[in-house]
Protein backbone atom coordinates (compact mmCIF):
# COMPACT_ATOMS: atom_id res chain seq x y z
CA UNK A 1 0.00 0.00 0.00
CA UNK A 2 1.06 3.58 -0.52
CA UNK A 3 1.15 5.44 2.79
CA UNK A 4 2.63 8.89 2.21
CA UNK A 5 3.64 11.14 -0.65
CA UNK A 6 5.54 14.44 -0.42
CA UNK A 7 6.25 16.73 -3.36
CA UNK A 8 8.73 19.59 -3.26
CA UNK A 9 8.99 22.15 -6.08
CA UNK A 10 7.20 19.92 -8.56
CA UNK A 11 3.65 20.13 -9.79
CA UNK A 12 1.13 22.90 -9.12
CA UNK A 13 2.38 23.70 -5.62
CA UNK A 14 5.78 24.24 -4.02
CA UNK A 15 5.09 21.72 -1.25
CA UNK A 16 2.46 19.00 -0.87
CA UNK A 17 2.28 16.33 1.84
CA UNK A 18 -0.28 13.53 1.72
CA UNK A 19 -1.07 10.75 4.20
CA UNK A 20 -3.19 8.19 2.35
CA UNK A 21 -6.04 6.35 4.02
CA UNK A 22 -5.55 2.63 4.53
CA UNK A 23 -8.85 1.93 2.73
CA UNK A 24 -10.11 5.06 0.92
CA UNK A 25 -8.60 8.40 -0.11
CA UNK A 26 -10.71 10.98 -1.96
CA UNK A 27 -9.37 14.19 -3.54
CA UNK A 28 -11.67 17.02 -4.57
CA UNK A 29 -11.25 20.63 -5.64
CA UNK A 30 -11.45 22.94 -8.65
CA UNK A 31 -10.06 22.04 -12.07
CA UNK A 32 -6.35 22.53 -12.66
CA UNK A 33 -5.22 22.43 -9.04
CA UNK A 34 -3.38 19.10 -9.13
CA UNK A 35 -5.74 16.21 -8.36
CA UNK A 36 -4.86 14.19 -11.47
CA UNK A 37 -1.20 15.08 -11.06
CA UNK A 38 -1.15 13.53 -7.59
CA UNK A 39 -2.60 10.27 -8.97
CA UNK A 40 0.02 10.24 -11.76
CA UNK A 41 2.85 10.66 -9.25
CA UNK A 42 1.37 8.06 -6.88
CA UNK A 43 1.21 5.58 -9.79
CA UNK A 44 4.82 6.32 -10.72
CA UNK A 45 6.04 5.98 -7.13
CA UNK A 46 4.39 2.56 -6.92
CA UNK A 47 5.42 1.21 -10.34
CA UNK A 48 8.47 3.28 -11.40
CA UNK A 49 6.92 3.90 -14.81
CA UNK A 50 4.87 6.91 -15.90
CA UNK A 51 1.33 6.33 -17.16
CA UNK A 52 1.59 9.54 -19.21
CA UNK A 53 4.02 12.42 -19.46
CA UNK A 54 6.81 12.52 -16.88
CA UNK A 55 6.39 15.14 -14.15
CA UNK A 56 8.79 18.05 -14.55
CA UNK A 57 9.84 20.62 -11.93
CA UNK A 58 8.29 24.07 -12.23
CA UNK A 59 11.74 25.67 -12.36
CA UNK A 60 12.63 23.51 -15.38
CA UNK A 61 9.45 24.37 -17.27
CA UNK A 62 9.56 28.11 -16.50
CA UNK A 63 13.07 28.97 -15.30
CA UNK A 64 13.73 32.31 -13.66
CA UNK A 65 16.26 34.29 -15.70
CA UNK A 66 19.42 35.06 -13.79
CA UNK A 67 18.75 32.37 -11.17
CA UNK A 68 21.28 29.55 -11.56
CA UNK A 69 20.81 27.71 -8.27
CA UNK A 70 17.26 26.37 -8.49
CA UNK A 71 15.71 24.83 -5.39
CA UNK A 72 15.87 21.05 -5.19
CA UNK A 73 12.88 19.28 -6.73
CA UNK A 74 12.05 16.06 -4.89
CA UNK A 75 9.40 13.33 -4.65
CA UNK A 76 9.33 11.24 -1.47
CA UNK A 77 7.04 8.27 -0.95
CA UNK A 78 6.45 5.62 1.68
CA UNK A 79 4.92 2.29 0.62
CA UNK A 80 5.23 -1.48 0.78
CA UNK A 81 7.79 -2.59 -1.83
CA UNK A 82 8.74 -5.96 -3.27
CA UNK A 83 11.91 -5.79 -1.15
CA UNK A 84 10.65 -4.80 2.30
CA UNK A 85 7.71 -3.21 4.07
CA UNK A 86 7.54 0.54 4.72
CA UNK A 87 10.09 1.44 2.08
CA UNK A 88 10.84 5.17 1.93
CA UNK A 89 12.22 6.43 -1.37
CA UNK A 90 13.40 9.90 -2.27
CA UNK A 91 13.79 10.98 -5.88
CA UNK A 92 15.60 14.17 -6.87
CA UNK A 93 15.34 15.64 -10.37
CA UNK A 94 18.64 15.66 -12.26
CA UNK A 95 18.46 18.57 -14.69
CA UNK A 96 21.21 17.46 -17.09
CA UNK A 97 19.79 13.98 -17.60
CA UNK A 98 16.15 15.07 -17.16
CA UNK A 99 15.49 12.07 -14.91
CA UNK A 100 14.29 11.44 -11.37
CA UNK A 101 17.22 9.86 -9.56
CA UNK A 102 16.63 7.73 -6.47
CA UNK A 103 18.69 8.94 -3.51
CA UNK A 104 19.85 6.89 -0.49
CA UNK A 105 17.75 7.23 2.67
CA UNK A 106 18.55 6.73 6.32
CA UNK A 107 15.55 4.52 6.95
CA UNK A 108 15.13 0.79 7.02
CA UNK A 109 13.84 1.16 3.47
CA UNK A 110 17.36 1.90 2.23
CA UNK A 111 17.75 -1.63 0.88
CA UNK A 112 14.59 -1.12 -1.16
CA UNK A 113 16.17 1.65 -3.22
CA UNK A 114 14.36 2.07 -6.53
CA UNK A 115 12.21 -1.02 -5.85
CA UNK A 116 8.57 -0.84 -7.01
CA UNK A 117 5.52 -1.75 -4.95
CA UNK A 118 4.49 -5.24 -3.88
CA UNK A 119 0.83 -4.38 -4.66
CA UNK A 120 -1.24 -5.03 -7.75
CA UNK A 121 -2.08 -1.54 -9.06
CA UNK A 122 -4.87 -0.60 -11.50
CA UNK A 123 -5.19 3.02 -12.63
CA UNK A 124 -8.09 4.35 -14.71
CA UNK A 125 -7.36 7.83 -16.08
CA UNK A 126 -9.91 10.51 -16.97
CA UNK A 127 -9.75 9.65 -20.70
CA UNK A 128 -10.50 5.95 -20.21
CA UNK A 129 -6.87 4.84 -20.43
CA UNK A 130 -6.19 1.96 -18.05
CA UNK A 131 -2.77 1.13 -16.61
CA UNK A 132 -2.09 -2.16 -14.82
CA UNK A 133 0.94 -3.23 -12.79
CA UNK A 134 1.77 -6.68 -11.42
CA UNK A 135 4.52 -7.11 -8.78
CA UNK A 136 5.26 -10.66 -9.94
CA UNK A 137 5.96 -9.43 -13.46
CA UNK A 138 8.10 -6.64 -11.98
CA UNK A 139 10.25 -9.18 -10.16
CA UNK A 140 10.53 -11.36 -13.26
CA UNK A 141 11.62 -8.38 -15.37
CA UNK A 142 14.11 -7.28 -12.71
CA UNK A 143 15.60 -10.79 -12.68
CA UNK A 144 15.83 -10.79 -16.49
CA UNK A 145 17.63 -7.42 -16.46
CA UNK A 146 20.06 -8.71 -13.83
CA UNK A 147 20.90 -11.78 -15.95
CA UNK A 148 21.49 -9.64 -19.03
CA UNK A 149 23.76 -7.30 -17.09
CA UNK A 150 25.81 -10.30 -15.89
CA UNK A 151 26.14 -11.55 -19.45
CA UNK A 152 27.29 -8.15 -20.65
CA UNK A 153 29.84 -8.07 -17.84
CA UNK A 154 31.18 -11.52 -18.80
CA UNK A 155 31.20 -10.96 -22.56
CA UNK A 156 32.67 -7.67 -23.66
CA UNK A 157 31.25 -7.87 -27.19
CA UNK A 158 27.65 -8.31 -26.05
CA UNK A 159 25.39 -5.28 -26.05
CA UNK A 160 22.65 -4.81 -23.44
CA UNK A 161 19.14 -4.45 -24.88
CA UNK A 162 16.12 -4.64 -22.60
CA UNK A 163 13.43 -2.08 -23.37
CA UNK A 164 10.38 -4.09 -22.24
CA UNK A 165 8.15 -2.19 -19.79
CA UNK A 166 6.68 -3.89 -16.75
CA UNK A 167 3.37 -2.02 -16.68
CA UNK A 168 0.61 -2.41 -19.22
CA UNK A 169 -1.00 0.83 -20.39
CA UNK A 170 -3.93 0.61 -22.81
CA UNK A 171 -6.27 3.13 -24.37
CA UNK A 172 -9.96 2.35 -24.10
CA UNK A 173 -9.94 0.97 -27.65
CA UNK A 174 -6.95 -1.28 -26.91
CA UNK A 175 -8.51 -2.41 -23.64
CA UNK A 176 -11.57 -3.62 -25.51
CA UNK A 177 -10.03 -4.97 -28.73
CA UNK A 178 -6.63 -6.17 -27.54
CA UNK A 179 -3.09 -5.50 -28.73
CA UNK A 180 -0.97 -7.50 -31.17
CA UNK A 181 2.77 -6.84 -31.52
CA UNK A 182 5.30 -8.64 -33.69
CA UNK A 183 2.92 -11.50 -34.54
CA UNK A 184 2.30 -12.04 -30.84
CA UNK A 185 -1.00 -11.42 -29.10
CA UNK A 186 0.23 -9.26 -26.23
CA UNK A 187 -3.25 -8.64 -24.81
CA UNK A 188 -6.58 -10.22 -25.77
CA UNK A 189 -8.85 -7.40 -24.65
CA UNK A 190 -12.28 -7.27 -23.05
CA UNK A 191 -14.33 -8.57 -25.99
CA UNK A 192 -12.19 -11.68 -26.48
CA UNK A 193 -11.52 -12.46 -22.80
CA UNK A 194 -15.11 -11.84 -21.71
CA UNK A 195 -16.35 -14.24 -24.39
CA UNK A 196 -13.82 -16.94 -23.46
CA UNK A 197 -14.60 -16.60 -19.73
CA UNK A 198 -18.33 -16.81 -20.40
CA UNK A 199 -18.00 -19.94 -22.54
CA UNK A 200 -15.77 -21.61 -19.95
CA UNK A 201 -17.92 -20.36 -17.05
CA UNK A 202 -14.73 -20.04 -15.00
CA UNK A 203 -13.67 -18.04 -11.92
CA UNK A 204 -13.18 -14.84 -13.92
CA UNK A 205 -16.71 -15.06 -15.34
CA UNK A 206 -18.08 -15.58 -11.82
CA UNK A 207 -16.27 -12.39 -10.78
CA UNK A 208 -17.76 -10.53 -13.76
CA UNK A 209 -21.31 -11.65 -12.89
CA UNK A 210 -20.93 -10.57 -9.27
CA UNK A 211 -19.31 -7.30 -10.32
CA UNK A 212 -22.08 -6.44 -12.77
CA UNK A 213 -24.66 -7.09 -10.08
CA UNK A 214 -22.88 -4.85 -7.56
CA UNK A 215 -22.12 -2.03 -10.00
CA UNK A 216 -25.51 -1.74 -11.70
CA UNK A 217 -27.83 1.02 -10.38
CA UNK A 218 -30.26 -0.06 -7.69
CA UNK A 219 -33.33 1.08 -9.64
CA UNK A 220 -32.06 -0.14 -13.04
CA UNK A 221 -30.30 -3.47 -12.45
CA UNK A 222 -28.73 -5.24 -15.39
CA UNK A 223 -26.99 -8.58 -15.88
CA UNK A 224 -24.82 -10.38 -18.43
CA UNK A 225 -26.63 -11.52 -21.56
CA UNK A 226 -25.75 -14.02 -24.30
CA UNK A 227 -22.84 -13.71 -26.69
CA UNK A 228 -24.08 -12.37 -30.02
CA UNK A 229 -22.64 -11.78 -33.46
CA UNK A 230 -23.36 -8.16 -34.39
CA UNK A 231 -21.82 -7.48 -37.83
CA UNK A 232 -21.90 -9.48 -41.05
CA UNK A 233 -18.23 -8.74 -41.76
CA UNK A 234 -17.05 -9.45 -38.18
CA UNK A 235 -17.16 -13.07 -37.05
CA UNK A 236 -16.63 -12.23 -33.38
CA UNK A 237 -19.41 -12.80 -30.89
CA UNK A 238 -19.76 -9.80 -28.61
CA UNK A 239 -20.73 -9.82 -24.93
CA UNK A 240 -24.09 -8.23 -24.14
CA UNK A 241 -25.74 -6.57 -21.18
CA UNK A 242 -29.31 -7.56 -20.32
CA UNK A 243 -31.67 -4.94 -18.85
CA UNK A 244 -34.28 -5.73 -16.21
CA UNK A 245 -36.81 -6.00 -19.06
CA UNK A 246 -34.77 -8.69 -20.82
CA UNK A 247 -33.41 -6.56 -23.69
CA UNK A 248 -29.82 -7.47 -24.61
CA UNK A 249 -27.46 -4.71 -25.78
CA UNK A 250 -24.00 -5.55 -27.19
CA UNK A 251 -21.30 -3.87 -25.12
CA UNK A 252 -19.96 -1.98 -28.15
CA UNK A 253 -23.31 -0.13 -28.30
CA UNK A 254 -23.64 0.47 -24.57
CA UNK A 255 -23.66 3.98 -23.10
CA UNK A 256 -20.44 5.77 -22.09
CA UNK A 257 -21.25 5.23 -18.41
CA UNK A 258 -21.78 1.48 -18.79
CA UNK A 259 -18.65 1.16 -20.93
CA UNK A 260 -16.59 2.92 -18.26
CA UNK A 261 -17.95 0.72 -15.48
CA UNK A 262 -17.41 -2.49 -17.44
CA UNK A 263 -13.90 -1.42 -18.52
CA UNK A 264 -12.98 -0.93 -14.87
CA UNK A 265 -14.59 -4.22 -13.85
CA UNK A 266 -12.76 -6.09 -16.62
CA UNK A 267 -9.41 -4.47 -15.74
CA UNK A 268 -9.74 -5.46 -12.08
CA UNK A 269 -10.80 -9.02 -12.95
CA UNK A 270 -8.08 -9.43 -15.57
CA UNK A 271 -5.35 -8.01 -13.33
CA UNK A 272 -6.20 -10.40 -10.49
CA UNK A 273 -6.65 -13.44 -12.78
CA UNK A 274 -3.37 -12.68 -14.57
CA UNK A 275 -1.61 -12.27 -11.23
CA UNK A 276 -2.81 -15.65 -9.97
CA UNK A 277 -1.72 -17.31 -13.23
CA UNK A 278 1.74 -15.68 -13.09
CA UNK A 279 2.15 -16.76 -9.48
CA UNK A 280 1.35 -20.30 -10.54
CA UNK A 281 3.86 -20.16 -13.43
CA UNK A 282 6.67 -18.74 -11.27
CA UNK A 283 5.73 -20.70 -8.10
CA UNK A 284 5.38 -17.45 -6.13
CA UNK A 285 3.04 -16.32 -3.38
CA UNK A 286 0.19 -14.02 -4.49
CA UNK A 287 0.31 -10.37 -3.49
CA UNK A 288 -1.42 -9.31 -0.30
CA UNK A 289 -2.44 -5.88 -1.60
CA UNK A 290 -4.40 -4.39 -4.49
CA UNK A 291 -4.61 -0.64 -5.15
CA UNK A 292 -7.19 1.01 -7.42
CA UNK A 293 -6.62 4.57 -8.66
CA UNK A 294 -9.52 6.34 -10.44
CA UNK A 295 -9.47 9.85 -11.85
CA UNK A 296 -12.88 11.56 -11.93
CA UNK A 297 -14.77 8.58 -10.60
CA UNK A 298 -18.14 10.18 -11.47
CA UNK A 299 -17.33 10.82 -15.17
CA UNK A 300 -20.16 9.71 -17.53
CA UNK A 301 -22.22 8.43 -14.60
CA UNK A 302 -25.86 9.27 -13.91
CA UNK A 303 -26.62 10.46 -10.33
CA UNK A 304 -28.08 7.01 -9.60
CA UNK A 305 -24.57 5.61 -10.14
CA UNK A 306 -22.73 8.50 -8.54
CA UNK A 307 -24.34 7.88 -5.17
CA UNK A 308 -23.36 4.21 -5.14
CA UNK A 309 -20.15 3.91 -7.19
CA UNK A 310 -17.54 3.99 -4.40
CA UNK A 311 -19.38 1.59 -2.13
CA UNK A 312 -20.03 -0.68 -5.13
CA UNK A 313 -16.33 -0.71 -6.03
CA UNK A 314 -15.49 -1.67 -2.45
CA UNK A 315 -17.94 -4.57 -2.72
CA UNK A 316 -16.55 -5.62 -6.12
CA UNK A 317 -12.98 -5.68 -4.82
CA UNK A 318 -14.11 -7.65 -1.78
CA UNK A 319 -15.93 -10.25 -3.90
CA UNK A 320 -13.03 -10.50 -6.34
CA UNK A 321 -10.71 -11.39 -3.46
CA UNK A 322 -13.18 -13.66 -1.65
CA UNK A 323 -11.29 -16.20 0.43
CA UNK A 324 -7.98 -14.37 -0.12
CA UNK A 325 -6.07 -12.55 2.60
CA UNK A 326 -5.70 -9.39 0.52
CA UNK A 327 -5.98 -5.74 1.58
CA UNK A 328 -7.55 -3.19 -0.78
CA UNK A 329 -6.88 0.53 -1.15
CA UNK A 330 -9.01 2.88 -3.26
CA UNK A 331 -7.70 6.34 -4.25
CA UNK A 332 -9.85 8.61 -6.42
CA UNK A 333 -10.65 12.18 -7.44
CA UNK A 334 -14.13 13.65 -7.80
CA UNK A 335 -15.99 16.89 -8.52
CA UNK A 336 -19.38 15.48 -7.51
CA UNK A 337 -21.06 16.45 -4.19
CA UNK A 338 -23.31 13.41 -4.59
CA UNK A 339 -20.26 11.11 -4.46
CA UNK A 340 -19.24 12.60 -1.11
CA UNK A 341 -22.80 12.46 0.21
CA UNK A 342 -22.88 8.75 -0.69
CA UNK A 343 -19.85 8.12 1.58
CA UNK A 344 -21.62 9.23 4.76
CA UNK A 345 -23.03 5.81 5.76
CA UNK A 346 -19.68 3.99 5.63
CA UNK A 347 -16.87 6.59 5.88
CA UNK A 348 -14.48 5.56 8.66
CA UNK A 349 -12.02 8.24 9.81
CA UNK A 350 -9.60 5.59 11.08
CA UNK A 351 -8.98 4.26 7.54
CA UNK A 352 -10.52 6.81 5.16
CA UNK A 353 -9.48 10.38 4.38
CA UNK A 354 -10.81 13.34 2.36
CA UNK A 355 -8.53 16.02 0.87
CA UNK A 356 -9.51 19.23 -0.91
CA UNK A 357 -7.39 21.39 -3.20
CA UNK A 358 -7.94 25.13 -2.96
CA UNK A 359 -6.38 28.27 -4.38
CA UNK A 360 -5.15 30.73 -1.75
CA UNK A 361 -5.56 34.01 -3.62
CA UNK A 362 -3.75 36.06 -0.98
CA UNK A 363 -0.61 33.93 -1.15
CA UNK A 364 -1.14 33.06 -4.84
CA UNK A 365 -0.51 29.38 -4.17
CA UNK A 366 -2.37 26.08 -4.20
CA UNK A 367 -3.10 24.48 -0.84
CA UNK A 368 -4.03 20.90 0.01
CA UNK A 369 -6.19 20.53 3.10
CA UNK A 370 -7.14 17.39 4.96
CA UNK A 371 -10.84 17.88 5.64
CA UNK A 372 -12.51 17.02 8.91
CA UNK A 373 -15.22 14.51 8.09
CA UNK A 374 -18.67 15.96 8.78
CA UNK A 375 -21.94 14.35 7.81
CA UNK A 376 -23.87 17.02 5.91
CA UNK A 377 -26.94 15.00 4.98
CA UNK A 378 -27.37 15.89 1.30
CA UNK A 379 -25.48 16.71 -1.89
CA UNK A 380 -26.82 20.29 -1.70
CA UNK A 381 -25.28 20.68 1.75
CA UNK A 382 -21.95 19.35 0.43
CA UNK A 383 -22.14 21.78 -2.50
CA UNK A 384 -22.40 24.78 -0.15
CA UNK A 385 -19.88 23.40 2.34
CA UNK A 386 -16.26 24.66 2.58
CA UNK A 387 -15.23 21.60 0.53
CA UNK A 388 -16.86 22.99 -2.64
CA UNK A 389 -17.36 26.58 -1.47
CA UNK A 390 -20.47 27.62 -3.45
CA UNK A 391 -22.81 30.13 -1.82
CA UNK A 392 -25.95 28.37 -3.04
CA UNK A 393 -26.89 25.14 -4.79
CA UNK A 394 -28.74 26.97 -7.58
CA UNK A 395 -27.88 28.74 -10.85
CA UNK A 396 -25.63 31.79 -10.98
CA UNK A 397 -28.55 33.87 -12.32
CA UNK A 398 -30.75 33.00 -9.33
CA UNK A 399 -27.90 33.71 -6.95
CA UNK A 400 -27.23 37.12 -8.54
CA UNK A 401 -30.92 38.04 -8.61
CA UNK A 402 -31.34 37.24 -4.90
CA UNK A 403 -28.23 39.24 -4.02
CA UNK A 404 -29.59 42.22 -5.94
CA UNK A 405 -32.99 41.88 -4.26
CA UNK A 406 -31.48 41.81 -0.77
CA UNK A 407 -29.36 44.83 -1.62
CA UNK A 408 -32.48 46.67 -2.85
CA UNK A 409 -34.25 45.95 0.44
CA UNK A 410 -31.24 47.09 2.46
CA UNK A 411 -30.81 50.33 0.48
CA UNK A 412 -34.56 51.11 0.41
CA UNK A 413 -34.59 51.77 -3.36
CA UNK A 414 -37.55 53.50 -5.01
CA UNK A 415 -40.48 51.61 -6.50
CA UNK A 416 -39.21 51.81 -10.09
CA UNK A 417 -35.90 50.14 -9.21
CA UNK A 418 -37.71 47.55 -7.11
CA UNK A 419 -39.88 46.65 -10.10
CA UNK A 420 -36.76 46.05 -12.24
CA UNK A 421 -35.37 43.75 -9.53
CA UNK A 422 -38.75 41.97 -9.34
CA UNK A 423 -38.67 41.22 -13.09
CA UNK A 424 -35.26 39.58 -12.71
CA UNK A 425 -36.62 37.46 -9.87
CA UNK A 426 -39.59 36.39 -11.99
CA UNK A 427 -37.23 35.31 -14.79
CA UNK A 428 -34.93 33.24 -12.56
CA UNK A 429 -36.93 31.97 -9.56
CA UNK A 430 -39.42 29.13 -9.48
CA UNK A 431 -42.92 30.16 -8.38
CA UNK A 432 -42.55 28.03 -5.24
CA UNK A 433 -39.06 29.34 -4.40
CA UNK A 434 -38.78 30.04 -0.63
CA UNK A 435 -37.22 33.46 -1.31
CA UNK A 436 -40.59 34.81 -2.56
CA UNK A 437 -42.00 35.00 0.97
CA UNK A 438 -39.06 37.17 2.08
CA UNK A 439 -39.25 39.43 -0.96
CA UNK A 440 -43.01 39.99 -0.87
CA UNK A 441 -43.08 40.71 2.85
CA UNK A 442 -40.29 43.29 2.48
CA UNK A 443 -41.97 44.83 -0.57
CA UNK A 444 -45.19 45.22 1.40
CA UNK A 445 -43.34 46.97 4.24
CA UNK A 446 -41.62 49.31 1.79
CA UNK A 447 -44.90 50.08 0.05
CA UNK A 448 -43.69 48.90 -3.36
CA UNK A 449 -46.35 48.13 -5.96
CA UNK A 450 -44.85 45.15 -7.81
Q: Find the CATH superfamily of the largest domain.
A: P-loop containing nucleotide triphosphate hydrolases
CATH architecture of the largest domain: 3-Layer(aba) Sandwich
Mean pLDDT: 85
Q: How many beta strands in the DSSP annotation?
A: 20
Count the helices. How many? 14
State the helical fraction. 25-40%
* Approximate strand percentage: 15-25%
Largest sheet: 8 strands, mixed
Q: Helices and strands: which structural class? A: alpha+beta
Unreliable sequence segments: 107-111, 158-163
Instruction: Report how far the terminal alpha carbons are from each other.
Output: 64 Å
Strand order of the largest sheet: 9-8-7-17-18-3-19-20
What is the CATH topology assignment of the largest domain? Rossmann fold
| CATH class category of the largest domain | Alpha Beta
From the alpha carbons, calculate the radius of gyration and give it in angstroms: 27 Å
The shape is globular
Topology:
Elements: E1 2-8, E2 15-19, E3 24-29, H1 35-47, H2 58-61, E4 74-79, E5 87-94, E6 99-103, E7 120-124, E8 130-133, H3 135-154, E9 168-170, H4 172-177, E10 179-181, E11 184-187, H5 190-200, H6 203-215, E12 223-224, E13 228-229, E14 237-238, E15 240-242, E16 248-250, H7 256-282, E17 289-294, H8 303-306, H9 309-320, E18 327-334, H10 337-343, E19 352-360, E20 365-370, H11 379-383, H12 396-411, H13 415-428, H14 435-446
Parallel strand pairs: 3-18, 3-19, 7-17, 17-18
Antiparallel strand pairs: 1-2, 1-4, 4-5, 5-6, 7-8, 8-9, 10-11, 12-15, 13-14, 15-16, 19-20
Helix pairs in contact: 5-6, 6-7, 6-9, 12-13, 12-14
Amino acid sequence: MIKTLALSNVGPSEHLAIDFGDRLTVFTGDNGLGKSFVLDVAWWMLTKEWAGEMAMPSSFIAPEHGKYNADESAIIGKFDSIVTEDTIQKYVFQRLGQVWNCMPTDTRGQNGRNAPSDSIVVYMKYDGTVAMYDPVKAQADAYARKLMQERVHNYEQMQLSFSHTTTRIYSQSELWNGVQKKRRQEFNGLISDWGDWQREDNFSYTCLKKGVRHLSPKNEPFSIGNLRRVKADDSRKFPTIKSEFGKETPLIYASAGIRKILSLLYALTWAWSEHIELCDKYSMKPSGNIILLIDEVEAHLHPQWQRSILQSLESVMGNLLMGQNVSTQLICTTHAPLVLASLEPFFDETEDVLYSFDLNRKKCEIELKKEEWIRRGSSAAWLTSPVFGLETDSSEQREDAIKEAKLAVRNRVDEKEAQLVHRKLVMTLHQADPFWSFWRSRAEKRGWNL
